[in-house]
Design goal:
By secondary structure, this protein is α+β, with helices and mostly antiparallel strands. Helix content is 18%, strand content 8%. InterPro entries: DUF2237 (IPR018714).
Length: 130
């Protein structure tokens, strides 16, 4: 088995487990041929990003238990569709990105420079921020 790589060329790090993210709900932005949307960008969602997504028909705030989707709140870490992140970036409301947790396949859609402009360093244990 090959190791998934991040946009920096290193081993892909987990994105988030509370809520459990990833196309495969494994906490990582791993992807495969069945992930047609390319859920590869690890973000820390913001209120503005969530409002923008709702406005373009991609409601990420409302729980959808039938899809294992809890609904997101600002501050949640979530693997988003690369094209949706790029759309928000172009509209000026991109969510911050965790580069070490963003899959290299995101680069098929989003320029590295755009991701780097919104990069944040999020500790594995956010409680250390309090």
């Amino acid at each position: 088995m090959t190791t998934d790589r991040n946009v920096l060329g290193g081993e892909l790090e987990p994105c988030g487990t509370d809520p459990m993210t990833g196309y495969y709900r494994d906490g990582c932005c791993t992807t495969g041929d069945d992930d047609l949307g390319s859920h590869t960008v690890c973000t820390v969602v913001t209120k503005e990003f969530l409002e923008y997504q709702r406005g373009v028909g991609n409601d990420l705030s409302t729980p959808r238990p039938e899809y294992g989707f809890p609904g997101l709140r600002p501050g949640d870490r979530w693997c988003v569709v690369a094209a949706r992140w790029l759309q928000a970036y172009e509209a000026g409301v991109a969510a911050p990105v965790v580069l070490a947790s963003t899959h290299e396949r995101a680069l098929d859609v989003v320029p590295l420079e755009a991701l780097q402009r919104h990069a944040v360093d999020v500790p594995a244990d956010p409680s250390s921020l309090t």
